[in-house]
Design goal:
about 325 residues; alpha/beta; eight-stranded parallel beta sheet; 17 helices; about 50% helix; globular; binds adenine
Length: about 325
Amino acid sequence: MMKEFIQNMPKAELQVHIEGTLEPELLFELAKRNKVELPYATLEDAKKAMPYQNLPSFLVSYYANLKVLLTEQDFYDLTLAYLEKAASQNIRHTEISFDAQAHLNRGISLSTVMVGMHRAMQDAEQKCKISSGLILCFMRDLSEDDAQKVLLEALEFKDWIMAIGLDSSEMNNPPEKFKNVFDRAREYGFLTVAAAGEVGPAEYIWQAIDVLHVSRIDYGIHCVEDPDLMSRLVMKKIPISVCPVSNVKLGIIKSMQKHPLKKMLEEGLCVTINSDDPAYFHAYLNENFLAAQAGLSFHKDEIYEMARNAFLSSFLDNDKKEKYLLELDHYYNQ
Ligand code: ADE
C-alpha cells in the first residue's frame, strides 16, 4: 500500500547528477558508438564494479566513466533516458546537476553539453509532461579560478541554467574557497545551492549559508551535530536536499535505521528526498522514498510533507509551484 502511495504520488527531485544517471547499459552502448575502451570486459563486470567504499572511491569510477560522453547526441540520450525514467516514477519536476568542468577538461565544449541536455529537456517536457532545470555545479576539488572561467563561459547559456551549485570531493574543500565566484554568480543573477555536510563537518554548512549565501543545501546530514545550526536552518527555512540511499551506500551512514532524516524532519527542517546518482546506487527517487520509509518508519503524512517540501523548495515560479502543489494536495486528500 505504501509502495503504491509513493509510486503514484506526484513528486519533484532537486538533487540528481545527470552523470550519475549513466546506466551500465548506456555506458556500453556509448562506448561502442564512440569506439571508447572501457576498463570492464563485460556489462556484468561493470555492474559488479559497484558498490563503493566511500565518496572518493565512488567519484573515481563516476568521473572515469564520463569518457564515453563525447557528442551532443550522447548528452541528449543520457538526459532523455533519465527524464523518461523520472516521468515513469511520477516525477513532475526535476532540477538536474551537471559537472561542466568534468566535460570541458576532456575537451568537450560547453555548447555540446548544454545543447544536448537542453534539447532532451524540451522533448521530455512535450512527450512526458515533466518540467526540468539545470544546475551547473563547480567541482570543489578544482580551483576557484577554474570555477570563475566556467562561470564566464556559462553566461552565454544563462537562460538555460536554473542555478549554480558546488559538488565533488568535500573534504578539505570548504565552501569559503568559492566565496568570490559565488559572489560573482549572484551578481550575474544566478540562484545558488551547495553540497555541504555530506562528509564534511557542520561548519561547512554554516559557510554555505553565511559565506556563499545559498538558497538550498545538498546532503546536509551533518547539521544534526550542531543544535545552533539546526535552529538557524529551521528559522531561515533553508531547504536540505537529502539523498538517503546514497548516504548509506557510500558508508557515510551505517544503515537506513540510523539515518538522521527522521530527526531532521521532526525538528522542523525543510527536508526533501532525492536520488543523487541513481544508476550507481540502484535507486531512483521512488526507491529512495521506499528505503527511507522502510528504514525509518515514516507515516504517510511525513512522506507527503517531504514531497510537498520539494515542490516548495524548487526554483519554479510561483504559478507552476502552485499548480504542482494543488495536484499533490489533491492526490493526498483523495
Ligand atoms: N557528484 C556526484 N555525486 C556526488 C556526491 N554524492 N557528492 C559529491 N559530489 C557528487
